[in-house]
Amino acid sequence: MGPGELGEILCQIPSFDHPNLLVSGATMDDAGVYKLDSETALVQTVDYFTPMVDDPYIFGQVAAANALSDVYAMGGEPLTAMNITAFPTNCLSLDILREILTGGAEKVREAGAVIVGGHTIEDKEPKYGLAVTGLVHPDKIAGNSGAKPGDVVVLTKPLGTGIIATAIKGEIASPEAVKKAVENMTELNKTAAQTMQKIGVHGCTDVTGFGFLGHAWEICAASGVTMEVESSLIPLLPDVFDLANMGIVPAGAKANLKYLQDKVEFEGVSDTLQDILADPQTSGGLLITLPEDKGLQLIRELRNRGVLEANIIGTITESKSPKVIVKG
Length: 328
Prior knowledge:
Blueprint: H1 3-11, E1 21-23, E2 32-35, E3 41-49, H2 56-73, E4 77-87, H3 94-110, E5 114-122, E6 127-136, E7 151-155, H4 161-169, H5 175-186, H6 190-199, E8 203-206, H7 211-223, E9 225-230, H8 240-245, H9 251-259, E10 264-267, H10 271-278, E11 286-291, H11 292-304, E12 311-318, E13 323-327
Helix pairs in contact: 2-3, 4-5, 6-11, 9-10
């Protein structure tokens, strides 16, 4: 199922209107936000998927970091998490399940949150993730709809995890590419989220299965703006361009490009780079919009705190017809 088909189905689901429901699925945000009082709102999200690496402990770490990221993308702090697990107990050792859950637990602990329980079902293929609850001040929510003309756009992690995962399955990924991809996917967006909240931003999302272009488009659609991106400024993981040039690209990237064909304009951008920009990411970075005078400050503080590949990659402009423009 492509993103367009999914969107059509989601539009048919009954929606909820409540004065305390500050963020819902209407803007395709990363999490829902429900106001408890003038100082506190709940941030709630759920995410799980099948393994993209062979090591069960690393898989658990990646899946947990990916789920926690949705809370960080809203400007929140994770509070509690619940394991969501599917596992074939009839053909795989329970030691593997233990390693998956241990990896997830370590990332939840690193986030400063706690696991309070969970649920496991029998399935033919392992699946793992978390339902996460976090907290955010109602006036400091960083969502898809906050981008403003004049903002700069910051990306905090390099792209290419989907392409490298595809190369891993084909046993052609280099050790360096695998190492960097694992480091990228297991890195929490905690530092990036805390830093952006300290400086103050207008909008944020994380880059995951819809690819960089898809999540950039969600910001544009929800905010009613255009994002102009300089592709040369976007950080990439090692070997990603060469792999994509060889055709090592997940099917999801092609589905993303098809859905976005009338929403994104390319100016001098190769087909290979288009595939990379649409590559479905796992536990990707934050895509942040903030005033231009704060952009360089954010980059300096992020790099000082170890988020070394964060970069300003574009700007937000006013538009009557929201779109993403990518320049070569």
